[in-house]
Amino acid sequence: MKLKLRSTIQLIITIIVIISCTIYGMYINEIIDFRLLSVGDLNPYGGWSALKSALTDLSYRWRGFSRGTALTAGIVLTALFLGRFLCGYICPIGAIQDFFKYLGNKLGLKEINLSPKFEIIKYLVLISVIALSIMGLGNLVSPYSPWLAYLNIFIGFNLQAGTVILILISLISLVARRVFCRYFCPLGAFQSLLYAIGPFKIKKSECNCSYCLKTCPVSEELRVSDKEKHLSPECINCLNCIETCVKGTEGFQLKIGNKLLKKKTYVTLCITILLAAYILLPLTSRNSAVQAISTFEEVIDGVYTGSGMGFGGIMNVEVTINNQKITSIKVLNHSETSGYYQEVFRSMAYEIVETQNLSADAVSGATSTSRGFLNSVRDAVSKSLDN
Fold it and tell me: Is 233 helix (H, G, I), strand (E, B) or coil?
C-alpha cells in the first residue's frame, strides 16, 4: 500500500522522535555519552516558558533561542501565515489519533459523532495553562501533558497522569475523530487563533457538494464560513478535501489572499519555515559569560545545603567542598518535570565540579530547572563563605 504524502511525513516525524528520545534516554542514564535531541528540544511550548520567565523573573536574561523556543517560533510563523500545518502533518499526538481511527475503521467500529459546540473547551484550557504558567504554577499542568508523556515513554517509561490521558485519547480515537485536537489541546487552540487572523484560507471552489469532507480527520461536519466560503479555524490543514471530490474537481482550494497554491507548494513552504526556524534561530544565540572560581581562599571545607527555585518549585542540593574545591553535588529533593531535570542534574553538576565554574550554561529547553539548580549550588557555596 502506497502511503499518502501526509501519512509519509507523519511516519518520518514519528520515527525521528522515537529515535531521538530513545538515544536521549540512554544518554541521561549514562549508557552513551551523546544525544541528538532532548525533550526540551522537542517541546513546542518552549517559547511560552521563556516568555513567562521574561515577564515574571527579575533575574531572567535573554540568551538567544533554544531549540524549544525556536520550535515555538516556527509554529507561530507557520500557523499565522499558512495555518495549522503542525496539527495536520507533524504532531505525534495527532498522528496517534489518526492511526487509531484508521484501526477503528478497519475493525468496523461504529463512529461516534461529537458536537462542535464543545470545541470552546480547548480555548478555556489555553487560558488556564497561560494563567497558571504566569503565576509560576506550570509544574501543576505538565504532568497532565500527553505530549510530554509520549516523549517520556521512549526515554524510560514513567507512568503519570499524562500517560493515562494519552491512553484514553488513543482508545477514544478508535471511534471518534481527533478528540484531543478538537476539545482539549491548548497548542491547537493557539494555532487556531493565529490561523483565524492570517491570510491563508482553504476556500470552497465551484463545487458545492462537500462530499470531500467525508474523509476529514476532524469532522465531516467541519464548518464553512457562509460569508467567505472558507473552512473554520478548526481545520488542521490535512488537505484531504483538496483532492477527494467525487465529481473529479477540486472541492476546496488553497489560497493566500487571492493567490492559489498547489498542495506540494504549500507543504514545501510549511516544512521550509519550520526547519529554517528550528535550525537557524539557535545559531543566533550568544554564549553566557564564564566566571571561573578556580580558588576558594575564603571558603571552609565541609558539606553545605542550598536551595533554589526551579520550574516545579523549591529544590535542595548538598554541596561538598574539600581542599577549597567543589567535589560533589547531590540533589536532595525537587519537584521538576521528568525528561527535563535528568540532564540538568547530570551535566551541570559534572561541569561545575570539573571547571569550578558557577556560571555554567543552562541546558537547552530546561532553563528554569537549570537556573534553580545553579542558584541552589550558589546558595550552598555562599553558606561556606559565611562560616
Answer: coil
What whole-number distance in Å separates Cα of residue 278 and Cα of residue 280?
6
Predicted structure pTM score: 0.83
Q: Which domains does the chain have, with CATH numbers?
A: 5-202+260-284 (no CATH), 302-386 (3.90.1010.20)
How many whole angstroms from its chain centre is CA 128? 17
Angle between helices 5-28 and 263-280 (to 10 degrees): 20
> Could you tell me if 273 and 77 are in contact, meaning their C-beta atoms sit under 8 angstroms apart?
yes
The set of cell numbers assigned to 346 is: 547530570
Is the CA virtual torsion 18, 21, 27, 31 positive or negative? negative
Given the C-alpha cell 529515535, which residue does it identify? Answer: 19
Rounded to the nearest 10°, the torsion over CA 150, 153, 155, 160 is 90
Cα torsion at 199, 200, 206, 212 (round to 10°)?
Answer: -150
pLDDT digit string, tens, across residues 254-311: 888 788 888 899 999 999 999 999 999 988 865 444 444 444 557 788 899 999 888 8
Q: Which residue has the cell 563563605?
A: 385
